[in-house]
Amino acid sequence: MKNHTRIDRCRLSRKKQYTLSLVFAVLFGISIWGCFLLAQETINWKDSWHNLLHYGRILFLQPKRSDHLPIGELAYSLGISFALSILTTIGGAAIAFFLALGAARNIAPLAVVKIIRIITAVIRSIPTIIWVLVFSVTVNIGTDAAVIGMCFHSIAYLVKVFSESFEQINRDTIDALRACGAGFSGIITQAVIPVAATSIISWTFFRFEINFINAVAIGAAAGSGGIGYYLFMAGNLYYDIREVGAITYTIFGTVILLEMLSLRLRKGIKQH
Fold it and tell me: How many angstroms separate the CA atoms of 175 and 172, rounded?
């Protein structure tokens, strides 16, 4: 009986995969067809491909920093993006830790868990850049809106992953601590932190990487400064493709270094 049930589940999952693949293929085909249909009278495809290759060659093969952006200013703008990502990550992680305790089913009442999870799911469904633009209406465009918007989304993201880490703790352990008279703080210090500390550190650093990328994008969109703002200025004000390439390579190099640091951190956590 169990074997038949497993076979039926496998068939259902395969049907779902085939259906999703078919839907994506049809939508992709319609999108491509629509692009050609709309642009066949207004776009010269030969010139478009020529310009793409020409400017792509300049962007990636001839990067050069101009006089608009001294090396000291470039380093300073990169530091602003780093500071923004660090601030929003630490602030978001601190708030998310306590909210995640209320979102873990083995720690908090089910009603509280559902409320927190629904609210954070709604927040996560909206991109970070949209939250920044929403807060820029009330707080004004700048660093304040960027910090609040990025923290807002970071909290919702970390609540999910932190609560999943907390739920890996055996409920019997928590019940035993409560039976011994341990309060809420005792459960956190004796059960939650020792078990979930490595996971919390790993997920927090992963969110830091995401926030750095968001800080670059938001620097251009919300005027919060940082290296993203200079990337926007080089491409839209000065029309300097070479400087865009230089800034892009700087961002690429920074992201690669962060990824290498993240891998080392995770290896160190696993060893301990």
Answer: 5
pLDDT tens digit string along 181-223?
Answer: 777 778 788 888 888 888 898 899 999 999 999 999 888 777 6
Please identify which residue in the block is written with the tokens 């956590």. Answer: 269
Report the C-alpha gap between 126 and 157 in whole angstroms: 11
CB 230 within 8 A of CB 69: yes
pLDDT at 91 over 70: yes
d(CA 21, CA 164): 29
CA 23 to chain centre: 27
- Contact criterion met (CB below 8 Å) for 149 and 134: yes
Query: For residue 208, which of 200, 196, 220 has the smallest C-alpha distance?
Result: 200
Q: Does CATH place domain 68-271 in 1.10.3720.10?
A: yes
Domains of the chain, residue spans:
2-43, 68-271
Write the CB contacts of 80 (distance below 8 Å, at least 6 apart in sequence): 219, 225, 226, 227
For the chain, give the mean pLDDT. Answer: 85
Got the DSSP string for 176-241?
HHHHTT--HHHHIIIIIHHHHHHHHHHHHHHHHHHHHHHHHHHHHHS---SHHHHHHHHHHTS--H
Interatomic CA distance for residues 205 and 90, integer angstroms: 10
CA–CA separation, 256 vs 264, rounded Å? 13
Q: What global pTM score does this model have?
A: 0.80
Nearest in space to 211 (alpha carbons), one of 70, 120, 87, 115 = 87
pLDDT tens by residue, 4-58: 555 555 555 677 777 878 888 888 888 777 777 765 656 677 887 899 899 999 9
